[in-house]
Amino acid sequence: xxxxxxxxxxxxxxxxxxxxxxxxxxxxxxxxxxxxxxxxxxxxxxxxxxxxxxxxxxxxxxxxxxxxxxxxxxxxxxxxxxxxxxxxxxxxxxxxxxxxxxxxxxxxxxxxxxxxxxxxxxxxxxxxxxxxxxxxxxxxxxxxxxxxxxxxxxxxxxxxxxxxxxxxxxxxxxxxxxxxxxxxxxxxxxxxxxxxxxxxxxxxxxxxxxxxxxxxxx
Length: 218
What we know:
By secondary structure, the chain is an alpha+beta fold. The protein has a single domain (4-170), classed as PK beta-barrel domain-like (M1 Pyruvate Kinase, Domain 3, Beta Barrel), CATH 2.40.33. It has five helices and 13 strands. It has an eight-stranded mixed sheet. A three-stranded antiparallel sheet has the order 6-5-12, with no helix packed on it. Strands 2-3 form a two-stranded antiparallel ribbon. The chain is globular. The N and C termini lie far apart (49 Å).
């Protein structure tokens, strides 16, 4: 099956109510757009990341979520989950995002992108869906989707092929990194071979885990 982009999604800031936290602004409610969309070093033209402490930046310029994983959730929750519902910029098909390696590079349209990190679920996703315990359920499922860094800018659109053009020589997958950042933090030091692919905000966490492991074995 040919890997491809099923939809390209963007959003501006919109109000959202988070239980026990109150009203906030979020751009999680992304919607598909038609035609070609320009992509710069920080993401899609017309897209917004409201909380820049945790979202966006060059290491999280784009967020991809797989149609196959969305289909699993649609069946699990008995609801339609159209493109953009996960807060993703790119709804993909034909590529296993959980098995993608950190540092793996894809050619999409005129873009060259690099897989950088899993997405960890937050309260805004749970509030957006209105599903109790969604954070816990999303974490247990482990299909996090993948953040991407833009190495070569250009444009893309629905229907574009995804060609994997480079895979690094390590075994740090999105799935493994997701477990390390969430439920299996003893694995954090194992992400060291993929350190440079990670967003800059995540690298100190890896460095600390490596130092702690070294100290424990000294």
